[in-house]
Design brief:
343 residues, alpha/beta, Rossmann fold, Cobalt-precorrin-4 Transmethylase, domain 1, Methyltransferase, Cobalt-precorrin-4 Transmethylase, Domain 2, 3 domains, 14 strands, 25% helix, 19% strand
Length: 343
Amino acid sequence: MFEIEVTGRQVLITGLDATMPAHIAALIRDGARVTVAVEELSTSLKDLVHRGLISHDPDPQGSYDLVIAPRPAPAAPDPDPADAVATGSGVGRVTLVGGGPGDPGLITVAGLRALREADVVVTDRLVPQECLAEIPAHAEVIDVAKIPRGEQTSQERINALLIDRARPGRHVVRFKGGDPYVFGRGGEEVVALTEAGIPVTIIPGVTSSIAAPELAGIPVTHRGLTQGFTVVSGHVAPGDPRSTVDWSALARTGTTLVILMGVHTLRRICARLVADGLDPALPAATIADAGLAGQRIVRSPLGGLPDAVEAAGIGSPAVTVIGAVAGGRLPATTDLAMQGLVR
């Protein structure tokens, strides 16, 4: 996205507009050290600060190699009554787009086309932020990110936003990380929209449950090692009254176990699986920020994985893989763009 060399350079962002998160994501990918100098950040940008990917300083005093400001918004043309009738009457539509695991090269062609045709984009924290540069200039961008154990937009509020923005006749894209139906609460949004009479289209995305292990060089299935894989949420720990996962049964499946949203509960999950019969020496790995330039992989026997993850300072988002396939036979793929495979 940037034609100048920014690796290792101090870059100051002095304002935000709808496309600036895409530029910030590109700067991070290219190795820049980014500071954002605005009073208020969106939830997604706060998440980048929390993950140590950017800095936030409303009153910067130091020197910077590059200063970037958003372009002034062009003056809006006088509305054409004919256009108002065409786009502002009748019920609009919503497209749920799965953005994949984070690399902008891993969004589908259909998903990218939907973004380019959107009137409104309702976006999450784990979408490929660079893809926001593809949306039309007139499109409204609404950040409804949910930070684990932090700032949140309620699902009820998100559902209401989708209905409200679609009703006047707009095309609303609900932009989600991974796949909308894999722990993405896409089903809840479809139910709410359908009950409100809003047409919905689903565009699947590459789920991180498969992509993160692959990018770490871990196939979730491999002949001679495993004949299947099981994906579960680790958001609720074993033993929690809210848990509906039969962890004892998981330990007996003989499949690769893939755990999403399980960093906070990893120690309890590993202890329970070992207690239920899994070998503590079984290979395991946790992959953080899969598909991004900062992707990190921690490999360890199952029994020592929580300590290894903690020592490495791994936080959300991360995917854990447990099973013989995590033994490290295949090379890891870090960033596709850095290899020149996508741009």
